[in-house]
TrEMBL record:
It is found in: Cell envelope. Keywords: Heme, Iron, Metal-binding, Oxidoreductase, Peroxidase, Signal. This is Cytochrome c peroxidase. Residues 285-419, 438-578 form the Cytochrome c domain. The keyword Oxidoreductase applies. Coiled coil: none annotated.
Length: 583
């Protein structure tokens, strides 16, 4: 009986909670960083230091799901890009910290003169671990938040983990992706070890990890297979587990709908996750009104231009021109971007000067070079139009009086209706295996791997809105030339025109690559006529690769070393991102 008692007691002690496991894993991470520091202090070999760095990153991947979800502001300084973090409202910037900064210090060659900086980074990292540990010790982690966090982690692996986004130099992403999945069955087992979906999740995770170990070459890793055969099924099983356990969805404002099974569901994204007020939420009636306004030339001063003058629906709402023409006949400075998927970002215009579509529409309408209209005059005209009054009453039934802001909201609502997610790529990710050929699949793997496209154009929206929270839209400095065959960089200062920070000279929003086959020409100045030219530009390392002086270039300036066949495959893949209506 005594032995039985101790046996039971031992089993009870071994049962830890999800939070306790998390704290244990944080301690393990801290120990790996301490060992890392010891090796640096002892002037160990480059090989030893590099191997310990890899161990520390693998340890981080086991806690990343929780840190990124619950404490994202600290996560940014543990595994964020090695670029300055900027607070544009105050024109302030903060130097980066964390693994990607450390990676640049130790790889490809660690120099002893960088020892002090490396030790400093490791101390900052340990300080962040301590801060995170303190936070997790006092918060409650309920089952619904655990489910939401690990589901988001699957989405993070898809969109960031296997693309090299957080390991741009060392490219250790494949093994780390497998490691980051381990926490899924471990956490779900704590909720209910007898759940019928759990055994299937365990098998899928084990197979996924084995696949990563056996196929750990970054450039040849088959991301198309990995997502469709492992990550999407795991994502579906997590949602099945949630339903079986009757665990509610977390209530939060998010562009990702809580009901989705995979990141590639047709209705995965909620455009209301990007509006600044509930009053602006999308409705079909607002969209119908907005469509009428979109094609109405009376919105311009001379009644000769509508929104559709520069955004042609048959060209995915672009105009096919390098740059359009102003009201006075001169060329505008920038290329007309597509409005498809424009609602799934946190900033508008190439220079990101407006936060939402409402402000974007009024900016264009009132711009003296584009439409030169007046919101007051437009409002007055609409109040005299019986058809418009009926549409406004239907679109805004709770508001007695038609107001000017509703015009902006209606046009923005129409733009929010332009996201189809029905390309051949989408259908492939939903199980139609034969819809893409071998070249297109190779192109997808290149896009998300060797070519590094997906480190800026994030899957599956393929713009610069960073998953899986989608709370920030990024800009890039790529050194775009002024002419396709020219030797000078574009003189357009981009975001710097509105935020006088040196990092923003020549910075432009990362646009979506969806529908790119029908939205030529390309770049902010329309400098490239074909996708082949665009791919060639990136393959050469952007502006710096071409020999331009672009000190603040955020695009890696080393050559991608893509073969002609690989360049062609990339173009073939991008053409699979065309919505059905434009095919």
């Amino acid at each position: 009986m005594l032995c039985f008692f101790f046996s039971c007691q031992k089993n009870e002690i071994s049962k830890t909670t999800i939070k306790q496991d998390l704290l244990i894993d944080l301690t393990k991470l801290n120990n790996e960083v301490i060992q890392f520091e010891k090796l640096v202090n002892n002037n160990s070999s480059q090989k030893e230091i590099l191997e310990q760095f890899k161990k520390a990153r693998l340890a981080y991947k086991k806690v990343e799901w929780a840190i990124e979800y619950f404490i994202p502001e600290t996560a940014r300084f543990m595994n964020g890009p090695a670029l300055d973090e900027m607070e544009l409202e105050e024109n302030k910037s903060f130097e980066p910290h964390g693994f990607q900064v450390i990676e640049e210090i130790i790889y490809p060659a660690y120099q002893i003169e960088n020892k002090e900086n490396l030790i400093r980074e490791l101390h900052i990292f340990q300080s962040n671990i301590k801060q995170i540990t303190t936070s997790f010790e006092v918060i409650t982690i309920s089952d619904d938040y655990v489910l939401d966090a690990i589901q988001q982690n699957v989405f993070r692996v898809i969109s960031l983990g296997i693309t090299g986004f957080d390991s741009p130099i060392l490219q250790s992403s494949v093994l780390e992706a497998g490691e980051s999945l381990i926490v899924i069955p471990q956490s779900l087992e704590k909720i209910n070890s007898k759940n019928k979906s759990l055994s299937e999740i365990k098998k899928l995770v084990q197979k996924a990890q084995t696949y990563c170990i056996e196929n750990n070459n970054f450039n040849t890793f088959n991301r198309a297979l990995f997502i469709t055969e492992y990550l999407n099924p795991i994502s579906k099983k997590i949602k099945a587990f949630q339903k079986e356990e009757n665990i509610k969805n977390v209530k939060k404002s998010s562009p990702l709908k809580p009901t989705i099974e995979t990141l590639f569901d047709k209705d995965a994204f909620d455009v209301n996750g990007f509006v600044l007020s509930d009053d602006y939420n999308f409705t079909p009636d607002k969209s119908l009104l907005g469509e009428k306004l979109f094609y109405d030339k009376s919105l311009s001063k001379n009644n000769d231009r509508s929104c559709a003058t520069c955004h042609h629906p048959e060209k995915a709402f672009t105009d096919g021109l390098k740059t359009n023409v102003s009201l006075t006949g001169s060329n505008l400075a920038r290329n007309t971007p597509t409005l498809t998927y424009a609602s799934l970002q946190n900033a508008q215009f190439w220079d990101m000067r407006q936060l939402d579509l409402e402000k974007q529409s009024v900016d264009v309408i009132q711009n003296k070079d584009e439409m030169h209209g007046s919101m007051e005059n437009i409002h007055a005209k609409i109040l005299l139009d019986k058809d418009y009054i009926k549409l406004f009453k239907k679109a805004f039934p709770k508001i007695a009086k038609t107001e000017a802001w509703q015009i902006q909201n209606a046009i923005a609502s129409y733009v929010r209706s332009l996201n189809s997610f029905d390309s051949r790529f989408d259908n492939y990710m939903r199980g139609e295996k034969n819809i893409l050929n071998d070249e297109e699949i190779e192109g997808m793997n290149l896009f998300m791997g060797k070519a590094k496209c997906a480190t800026c154009h994030f899957t599956p929206i393929f713009n610069g809105t960073v998953p899986p929270s989608y709370s920030k839209t990024e800009h890039e400095v790529i050194g775009t030339p002024n002419e396709a065959s020219g030797k000078k960089i574009s003189p357009d200062l981009g975001r710097y025109l509105y935020n006088k920070m040196p990092q923003l000279v020549g910075a432009f929003k990362t646009p979506t690559v969806r529908n790119v086959a029908v939205t030529a020409p390309y770049m902010h100045n329309g400098v490239f006529k074909t996708l082949e030219e665009v791919v060639s530009f990136y393959n050469k390392g952007g502006g710096q690769g071409l020999g331009y002086e672009v000190e603040n270039q955020t695009l890696p300036f080393d050559k991608l070393n893509l073969t002609v066949t690989e360049e062609q495959a990339l173009v073939a893949f991008m053409k699979t991102l065309t919505d059905k209506k434009y095919q």
